[in-house]
Amino acid sequence: MAKGKHTPRILEFFLQRLASSQDNESLAGDFAEIYDRISNEKNRARALWWYLIHVLKLIPSFIGNQIYWSVEMIRSYSKIAFRNFMRHKAFSVINISGLAIGLACAILILLWVQHELSYDGFHANADRIYRIILNYGKKDAFGPHGPGALGPALKAEYPEIIDSTRLFFVDKNPLRYGDKVLNSSVCGGDPSLFKIFTFPFVMGDPEKALLDTNSIVLTETMTHKLFGPKNPLGETVGFEWWGRWYDFRVTGVVKDIPSNSHIKFDYVLPINFVTLSGMDIESWDVTAYFTYILLDEHVDEEVLGEKIAGILKRHLPESTYTVHLEQLRYIHLYNYSGGGPITYIYLFGIIGLFILSIACINFMNLSTARSADRALEVGMRKVVGSHRSQLITQFLSESVVMAYVALCLALVLVQVFLPSIRKITDTRLEMRIFGLQLLVFLGIALLAGLFSGSYPALYLSKVLPAKVLKGAHRSGARSLLLSRYLVIAQFVISILLIFGTVIAYEQLIYLRNKDLGIDKEHIVNFELRGGVRQNYTAIKQELLNNPNILAVCSTNGSFFKRFATDEAVWQGKKEDERLLMAIHSVDYDYAKVFGLQLVQGRYFSREFSTDVSEGIIVNETAVKAMGLEEPIGTPFYCPMPFNMSKNGKIIGVVKDFHFCSLHREIEPLILAIAPGWHTDMYVKMRGQDLPATLAHIEKTFRIFASDFPFEFNFLDEEIDSLYKTEMQLSSLVKYGALIAIFLACLGLFGLASFTAKQRTKEIGIRKVLGASVSDITVLLTKEFTLWVLAANIIAWPIGYLVMKKWLENFAYRIDIPIWAFVFSGLLVLGLSLLTIGHKAIKAALANPVNSLHYE
Amino acid sequence: MMRGLTRKEELIMLSILNLQKDAYLVAITDHLSRIMGKKVTITSVHLPLNRLERRGLIESKLGEATAVRGGRRRRIYTITKPGFAELREYKKIHDKLWAKYSKMSTQEDKV
Questions:
Q1: Are the Cβ atoms of A30 and B69 closer than 8 angstroms?
Q2: What is the full DSSP assignment across B53-85?
Q3: Sign (positive/negative) of CA torsion A485, A490, A491, A492?
């Protein structure tokens, strides 16, 4: 009998863990009773064995119990959460949508940042591919154009370099199949192109695709456009080059180029195609080609960089250029002078984080503002025996669930806005619903939920039930102080963004309206392609027969394409003087088309046969830069790039006009006639009856150049497109400003309702003592107004400095107007007054009896 | 709302009814073993008891301590009103189902 008294301690401990709290005493008793019985009837070992087995058998019931109670609690929590949501519908909707918008912004920015950082990373050898860049003698004067002989020489002379390819790009070159002609971008490359870069082939063999000099590789979209569903392999397509058509045979089809590739093309030809127009791809002195190399594994970039730096000088002794390496993945991200898109990426990343944290903080503030209501609930729960940990779980899970609801909304928003973001940023951003991205979003939402729920969870759960239930609960003043700074910070951001938008728009308007020194209206631009080049004179004559067409001219490259040289020689030039001058080849009617004015001398004229190749016209800046007192008649010779005669003379000086974007100062300019180099034609029309005039032009083209895809640009639109980046940026900033001001007002709203609630009694007492409604409204709004003013004072100098820096991108820019400060300040102040005014007036109108009758 | 009882639950409840004031876990287990003539384990009774209590068909109270149990109190189970109603319902169904056959079987016994 006595031996049965000792139940096994350890097993009993486990038993008590497993039994539910209400029956752990009785169950232990029951077990002890049977244990005794068995050890009496049989032996202690059997009894022990029995005990062990039955403790293990309790595990299923233990798990069942746990699940039952947690389901029960979750049901209660969600019921309360749902009721709370329904009771404050407007409030909850605003709260969740605020978080959703913040999350959507953060997600969009994340997608974009990810896209930008992934640039060129899809090539299997991305880490070992480098682009060769040249330093043109001056510090920071880097450029990617190099001589054609460079690539093959690098590969031959350095064993570390496994392969090299030259690339040459032409935008909008016609390609013909049957009667279909498409203007699309061509890339010329060596056969090793597809060995170095990873452009997956749908059809054809990447190893052999470019071996033949008349082979062509198309992208899938291009194939589809030209051939439809037909198998393109082996088909012959026509390629236009300097007015002639050449046949190429399709040897491969690659997948479309991803938008995160800096190399973009619609089709690829062997680089030799440029020799069709007489360009040299094997010499050391024509710098026109990009060179890419593939390094062996484990090659030190710096060591190799030092070895190859002097290669140009070795082959071309008079060269002053040095050769450097540029990592493939940095090409998109960094400029040669430092900075580059990477700055924008970081900037947007930080803005995204900021918007997300603002949204979370607002979410937290609004939840806190309601904590007074919830405090009573917390008190009740505590009185009936809730643990603090249970309360923390309740509030945290509630806000996490809200965050997930917001996330769902945010994902919908992202899907809705993705197409327009794609358009603005000119990328193929994609959201993959399944996969790593979703995990990241879920993680962000979880963090947001935990972060926003932490204050009510940790603070409210600490509340003493007796105090709350007596009605003495007040939320901490400390939290209020924190939110005050946060609201100010939000307004600083809003004001900055609004200010930025205003300045950017002003500058863009200024750029659009600035007098460029030319008449840019009603001018259209065509490229000299196929039959247009061959029949140029006839087309020009036919066009001029129409009275609505005033003038026609041709040039080398479009109006804004900048060719520059530093090899000009003129009488009176100092020996070592090198002047970088822009150079354009034009014709007799150039001045007429663009409305140029001559300051001295005369314009090119057909009456002087020597004007071709000997006549030179410069602009005023050039005269100043060369230091000429009597420019007319000064001998002037410029060997590159137009092979002009050595007997050149300056025959006229043209008034300065903007032939570059307004980012740059007007440079010294040379105008000459070298028709062999012309690629573009410009047509000046009369303002009336434009559609009919355009129809006439199209008809003329159809007659003389049926192979010509009739595509044209208006000069003023071309001018606008010079500022595309700025326009994109300013519209992004505009949306950012809208969102920021929305979120800031949301935060303010939360805070205003919070204070209004806290000061209910104070307002009641003031009213009883005779304060008027307007007194109270002023009392409630005064503080917020001061915050917004403080935000203005912080934001103004920052905004001034940032925008001044941005405006420095332009050689021609506006002065930051005073009204922009006042405008952004007043706008934000007005919006915030609207936000809190409603709350304040409602609080001021409340009957003091209601707020005081408990006392 | 009637969710029904499993056979085991029904047996346990009937045992509680039989044992009256002594209906605690070990006693119920023993009782069932005896009546059914086979071993019933304590855990297989414990789980249904919890479930029945949650459904409000039985209720429990702590009884007095005894030395045998290391000074721990027993939890005494009793049938609640809804529990009793449920049992009655089952009995009614059983009786109806047996009504005809029990006559026959008594006749058989006689023969």
A1: yes
A2: HHTTSEEEEEEEE-GGGTTPEEEEEEE-HHHHH
A3: positive
**Number of independent structural domains in chain B:** 1
Which pLDDT tens digit goes with each residue over A711-728?
888 988 888 888 887 888
Alpha-carbon gap: A11 to the closest alpha carbon of chain B (Å): 15
Asked, for residue B14, whether it belongs to a domain, the answer is yes
**Nearest residue of B to residue A69 by CA position?**
B54
Of B104 and A215, the structure prediction assigns the larger pLDDT to A215
On whether residue B85 sits in a domain, the answer given is yes
* HSE, side-chain direction, 13 A CA sphere, residue A762: 10
Alpha carbon of A33 to those of A5, A267, A700, B69: distances in Å? 10, 89, 112, 5
Is the Cβ–Cβ distance between A568 and A670 less than 8 Å?
yes
Confidence (pLDDT) at A199: 93
Tell me the pLDDT tens digit for each residue of A643-692: 677 778 889 999 999 888 888 888 889 888 888 788 889 999 988 888 88
Q: For helices A9-18 and A24-41, what crossing angle results, to 10°?
A: 140
Type of residue numbered A549: I
Residue B70 touches partner A, C-beta closer than 8 Å: yes
Q: Give the CATH number for residue B60.
A: 1.10.10.10
Inter-chain residue contact B70 with A5, CB threshold 8 Å: yes
**Residue A618 C-beta-side C-alpha neighbours within 13 Å:** 26
CA dihedral A837, A838, A840, A841 (to 10 degrees): 110
Predicted structure pTM score: 0.72
- Average pLDDT on B53-78 reads 81
Does a structural domain hold residue B19? yes
* pLDDT of B111: 43
The predicted structure's pLDDT at residue B109: 55
Any chain A CB within 8 A of the CB of B61? no
Report the C-alpha gap between B33 and B30 in whole angstroms. Answer: 5
Q: Is the peptide bond before A8 cis (omega within 30 degrees of 0)?
A: no
Work out how many CB contacts closer than 8 A connect A with B: 60
CB A503 within 8 A of CB A803: yes
Q: How far is CA A164 from the centre of its chain?
A: 31
The C-alpha of B103 sits at a distance from chain A's nearest C-alpha, in angstroms, of 43
Whether B26 is covered by a domain: the verdict is: yes
Q: Are A678 and A527 in contact (CB under 8 A)?
A: no
**Does B67 contact chain A (CB < 8 Å)?**
no
Render pLDDT for A799-831 as a digit per residue (tens, 0 to 9). Answer: 999 899 888 888 899 999 999 999 999 998 998
Residue B54 at interface with chain A, using a CB cutoff of 8 Å:
yes
**Domain span at B93:** 7-98
Note the pLDDT tens digit of each residue in A205-215.
Answer: 988 889 989 99
Interface test with B, best of A6, A31, A37 (most B CBs within 10 A): A31
Q: Which of B99, B62, B73, B77 is nearest to B27 (CA)?
A: B77
- Using an 8 Å CB-CB cutoff, list residues of chain A that contact chain B: 5, 7, 20, 23, 25-34, 36, 54, 57-58, 60-61, 64-65, 68
* Mean pLDDT across chain A: 84
Q: What is the pLDDT of residues A493-509, one digit of tens each?
A: 889 888 988 998 999 89
Give chain A's count of helices (H) and strands (E): 27, 24
Cα separation, B83 vs B60, in Å, equals: 13
Q: Of the ranges A383-392, A694-703, A838-847, which is most confident?
A: A694-703
Give the DSSP per-residue string, A631-678. Answer: -TT-BEE--TTT---TT-EEEEEEPP---S-TTSPPPPEEEE--GGG-
